[in-house]
């Protein structure tokens, strides 16, 4: 396979952060096709040209990283991440992985190799799985709480495999092996970071104890603050610092507020047209009665009202059954940027965003919103650093 179109490989060192020294980062989507909730894809599930065009659009417009997502029948996110790594220079990669699909020693090897390929740009996002039927498609029959226990063990193994240079044993409830050591070391030292998400009690406990990054979906400020406090307290009880917090939204932008809201209602109309008669948008998510706590929380927020705080809109979440990242931020770039800074003020340091026209919305958000947020964060940081202790 020709890995790099230009023939120039990225440097085998972690990328410099001097271009964006502020403590806020932006995560986009490293999708492998142009399908979204509003439009079915027009090509194959793995469209190489589109994958690269979308990744480069993120890199060119100031995003920090992209997620290569996981689904039971979707293209392999690890190979998509490798393709993106070989054809970008700065863009970081968030690789989604479900522990049930491979033994942790194999997953640790995959991540270490990809981290070398990317020059130290990889983070692993561990997905426990909140939908029994979706998990069972790949042979996973464990009940949810046991899946979280398995995830805890898997993360512990990843960390040990990436940092131990001598063979080690592991004897747990879900994994049992002896005398393992990786020959391939990650480029990052001491190891790649581990990202994790979930909104149940079991999720909070595992993430607080093991994760470097905790991913939350876009709830109102009060609910987000509550979750951050809970996870921070659990991390302190486990004797470790709180993870870095990430929150995800679906931005809908307009040159004026009126234009943005017209676009928002048109977006929902397209979603509703695609879901007539209960037609699911993807095989992964049901439109009603979600099993996972995160989706249940989003639907509960939607039941309380359509609009929250400065720009949060829940109708998109309601229309999709609370499927994943589905609450919107609606308004002009200035309004949406101000709303994102509100979450920064809560302690969120990674802002995840994905539009409904994946490519064009990524470009627009990168041009119009990211600079405003970075500018305001830099201003606030400068002000706080100038205040005497």
Structural class: alpha/beta
Give the neighbour order of strands across the main sheet. Answer: 1-2-3-4-7-8-9-13
For the largest beta-sheet, the strand count, sense and barrel status come to: 8 strands, parallel, barrel
Q: Calculate Rg over CA atoms.
A: 20 Å
Low-confidence stretches: 5-22
* Chain oligomer state: single chain
Content of β-strand: 15-25%
Helix proportion of residues, in percent? 40-55%
CATH topology name of the domain at 25-136 and 145-250 and 333-384: TIM Barrel
Write out the CATH superfamily name of the domain at 25-136 and 145-250 and 333-384: Luciferase-like domain
Output mean pLDDT.
91
Bulk shape: globular
Q: For this structure, what is the CATH class of the domain at 25-136 and 145-250 and 333-384?
A: Alpha Beta
- Helix count from the secondary structure assignment: 13
Give the helices and strands as they follow along the chain.
EHEHEHEHHEEEHEHEHHEEHEHEHH
Please count the beta strands (DSSP E, at least 2 residues each): 13
């Amino acid at each position: 396979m020709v890995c790099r179109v230009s023939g120039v490989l990225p440097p085998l060192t972690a990328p410099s952060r001097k271009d964006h020294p502020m403590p806020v980062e932006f995560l986009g989507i490293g999708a492998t096709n142009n399908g979204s909730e509003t439009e079915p894809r027009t090509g194959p599930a793995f469209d190489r040209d589109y994958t690269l065009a979308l990744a480069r659009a993120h890199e060119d417009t100031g995003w920090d990283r992209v997620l290569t997502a996981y689904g039971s029948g979707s293209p392999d996110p690890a190979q998509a991440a490798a393709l993106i790594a070989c054809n970008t220079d700065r863009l970081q990669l968030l690789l989604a992985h479900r522990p049930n699909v491979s033994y942790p020693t194999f997953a640790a090897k995959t991540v270490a190799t990809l981290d070398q390929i990317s020059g130290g740009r990889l983070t692993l996002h561990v997905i426990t799985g909140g939908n029994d039927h979706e998990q069972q498609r790949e042979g996973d029959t464990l009940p949810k709480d046991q899946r979280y226990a398995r995830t805890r063990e898997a993360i512990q193994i990843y960390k040990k495999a990436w940092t131990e240079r001598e063979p080690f044993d592991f004897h747990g409830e879900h994994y049992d092996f002896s005398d393992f050591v990786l020959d391939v070391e990650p480029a990052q030292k001491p190891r790649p970071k581990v990202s994790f998400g979930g909104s149940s009690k079991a999720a909070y406990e595992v993430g607080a104890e093991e994760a470097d990054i905790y991913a939350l979906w876009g709830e109102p400020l009060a609910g987000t603050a509550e979750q951050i406090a809970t996870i921070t307290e659990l991390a302190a009880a486990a004797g470790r610092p709180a993870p870095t917090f990430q929150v995800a939204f679906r931005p809908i932008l307009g040159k004026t507020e009126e234009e943005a809201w017209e676009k928002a209602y048109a977006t929902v109309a397209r979603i509703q047209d695609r879901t007539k008669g209960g037609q699911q948008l993807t095989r992964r998510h049901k439109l009603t009665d979600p099993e996972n706590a995160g989706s249940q929380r989003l639907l509960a927020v939607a039941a309380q009202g359509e609009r929250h705080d400065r720009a949060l809109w829940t109708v998109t979440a309601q229309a999709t059954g609370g499927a994943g990242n589905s609450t919107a931020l609606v308004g002009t770039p200035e309004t949406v940027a101000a709303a994102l800074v509100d979450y920064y003020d809560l302690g969120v340091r990674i802002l995840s965003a994905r539009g409904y026209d994946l490519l064009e919305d990524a470009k627009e958000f990168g041009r119009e919103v990211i600079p405003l947020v970075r500018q305001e964060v830099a201003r606030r940081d400068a002000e706080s650093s100038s205040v005497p202790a």
